[in-house]
């Protein structure tokens, strides 16, 4: 479980704060979407909940312990997988090497890491032949699938994705969001997707809208309290 307590953050002056006294909790097994206008602070929120940056005030807790106490690099390596719009795969490696090296870093408990990675890639339509090619030879949709399989193969329980479908067409976006659902509902991870696409939010269990320095829950239990705005 990930919790944010009394979160306040700004870059230049406190008067320009992006959030004020935010309290939130994110549970395992659920797929969350965070919607918000450009510049509202969505990417900054990703940095704060994944231990890439520290909030000016307040704290982020993982299973009841402050991530400062866990140690930011330990928190990032062991507990978080981040999926970026730009895939963020290591360009000089194959898909398989990208996944296995991430499994090594996170000390995955899988016995045969290579075999497991290949079986997971196969499930998303990436054959062994493709998996062994340099990742830059794969299409955008394939690279994003590799980035998500990397999150699936690592034992990290928290998956944070920043505009993961931003570079993809509609069909690939649909397939990617299905993978996020599997991560949440079958692997019981806590999955948080930052998006400006209402269609993506519609597929998520809980939708938060970042507006006026607060995160408002606009969808819970499959029903919208308020329809999201267009972003
Ligand atoms: N390192 C930084 N130093 C100073 N200001 C920053 C920094 N990073 C972001 N900002 C500012 O903070 C605000 C929030 O930025 P952020 O990238 O979190 O927004 P966002 O909601 O993700 O936007 P978008 O949807 O356009 O990607 C913006 O006004 C941005 O210019």
From TrEMBL:
This is ABC transporter ATP-binding protein. The keyword ATP-binding applies. It comes from the Bacteria. GO terms for cellular component: plasma membrane. PANTHER family: CELL DIVISION ATP-BINDING PROTEIN FTSE, LIPOPROTEIN-RELEASING SYSTEM ATP-BINDING PROTEIN LOLD. The lineage of its organism: Bacteria, Bacillati, Bacillota, Bacilli, Bacillales. It comes from Fervidibacillus albus. PROSITE patterns: ABC_TRANSPORTER_1 (PS00211), ABC_TRANSPORTER_2 (PS50893). InterPro entries: AAA+_ATPase, ABC_transporter-like_ATP-bd, ABC_transporter-like_CS, MacB-like_ATP-bd, P-loop_NTPase. Residues 2-231 form the ABC transporter domain. Keywords: ATP-binding, Nucleotide-binding, Transport. Belongs to the ABC transporter superfamily. GO terms for molecular function: ATP binding; ATP hydrolysis activity.
């Amino acid at each position: 479980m990930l919790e944010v307590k009394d979160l306040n953050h700004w870059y230049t002056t406190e008067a320009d704060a992006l959030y004020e006294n935010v309290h939130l909790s994110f549970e395992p097994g659920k797929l969350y979407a965070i919607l918000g206008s450009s510049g509202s602070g969505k990417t900054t929120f990703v940095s704060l909940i994944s231990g890439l940056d520290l909030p000016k005030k307040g704290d982020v807790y993982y299973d009841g312990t402050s991530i400062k106490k866990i140690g930011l690099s330990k928190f990032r390596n062991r507990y978080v997988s981040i999926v970026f719009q730009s895939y963020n795969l290591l360009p000089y490696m194959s898909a398989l090497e990208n996944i296995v090296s991430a499994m090594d870093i996170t000390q995955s408990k899988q016995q045969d890491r290579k075999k497991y990675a290949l079986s997971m890639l196969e499930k998303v339509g990436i054959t062994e032949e493709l998996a062994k090619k340099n990742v830059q030879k794969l299409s955008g949709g394939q690279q994003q699938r590799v980035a998500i399989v990397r999150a699936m193969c690592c034992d990290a329980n928290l998956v944070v994705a920043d505009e993961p479908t931003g570079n993809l067409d509609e069909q690939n976006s649909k397939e990617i969001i299905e993978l996020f659902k599997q991560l949440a509902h079958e692997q019981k991870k806590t999955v948080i997707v930052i998006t400006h696409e209402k269609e993506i939010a519609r597929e998520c269990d809980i939708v938060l809208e970042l507006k006026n320095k607060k995160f408002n829950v606009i969808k819970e239990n499959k029903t919208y309290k308020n329809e999201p705005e267009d972003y």
